[in-house]
Amino acid sequence: MVIKGHLQLSLLQNSFGYSHCLQHSMQSITLHNHNIMSTPTISKEKPNKLVSRVLILGGTGRVGASTATALSHLCPGLQLKIGGRNRKQGTALVSSLGENSEFVELDIYNQRMLKEALEGVDVVVHAAGPFKVQDKCAVLKAAISSKTAYVDVCDNTDYALRAKGLHEKAIAAGIPAITTAGICPGVSNVMAAKLVDAARNRDGATPESLRFSYYVAGSGGVGPTMLLSCMYLLDEEAIAYDKGKEVKLKPYSGVLNIDFGEGIGKKDAYLLNLPEVRSAHQILKVPTVSARFGSDPFFWNWAMQASARFLPKEFLRDKNKVFKIVQSIDPLVRIVDEISGQSLSMRVDLNCTDGKKKVGLFTHKKLSVSAGYAAAAFVLAVLEGSTKPGVWFPEEPEGIAVDARKVLLERATQGTSNFVMQ
């Protein structure tokens, strides 16, 4: 199988070993009553300079720009194409990235522009959200048509399932693709997969329940994108699984007080309909799965609860009206970010039938930065041949090979203040 562009996949596997991009070692990590303390240290070797080209769609947005910056740091030899509609921002980003980058002005809904941008590209990163409003997976279809490997940072269940529906076409084209390959979902899925694998294969235990919990201070530095994504989820029932049975619950209900460890502490988190619930249940074979999200300051959670309870579903389904609301409060969001910070914390709890428990925790002071390293880690895994042809979720071994998960997490956790898998 060949990734289109300058290098064959076999060449990438041989010339671009994991150690050439980033070695990330962790000093001692301890866990006391789920308060997690760690001190990461990072050492790098000089990376091989690849000729591979990566196109980042939504590259002038905060997540896309962060992905480009992370890729340029992890592997300076990559050729980066920044795709977006804002030429001024694109030009400024390219200037900061250096000579191995270029800006291409395009609209992802314009098939001609998209086709031209994909020419000569090895991997396309779709970071042009929100995905809730994208009905046809146009970028993935274009990637399959042009035989270009694909990674997206989708956080919407319906979009992810539509992407999965193109699985056979991706296989026929010989193209590897990973959907929901961001930070959460994405890195959180891989964390869950490692915990489940350790429980089953190392401890001989039977996983019983899996809980994803996320906390973001303010907007996490990604601006109105975070609020927009959450608002779009308020018209969807929160899907969870209880002993193998699918249950539908009210959005932003079922509050739990979650301990996110040192630096964050205990925060309230609420049920939302997130794609990792379904994929983890089906792929990891855990009978009980749920996902929750919470934010600071506290009135954001109150506002979300009130919106879920009192705003008509017809209003929440009107994407233009929701967008206008979010736009109108954008100045407030930016002020809140300055006060509350921009941190992200993820906690994955696995309980087994014998009473054994496993915990994964990830904390970073800036969501916008960690989201970029997360997406970059998936891109490099694809370039290194970790992904088979087809459309995969991050926890599927055909998406990220079992022996590649450790390296992916080492890259994705760069800059974390807390990271533990125990």
Automatic annotation (TrEMBL):
Residues 54-178 form the Saccharopine dehydrogenase NADP binding domain. It comes from the Eukaryota. PANTHER family: CARBOXYNORSPERMIDINE SYNTHASE. This is Saccharopine dehydrogenase NADP binding domain-containing protein. Gene3D superfamilies: Dihydrodipicolinate Reductase, domain 2 (3.30.360.10), NAD(P)-binding Rossmann-like Domain (3.40.50.720).
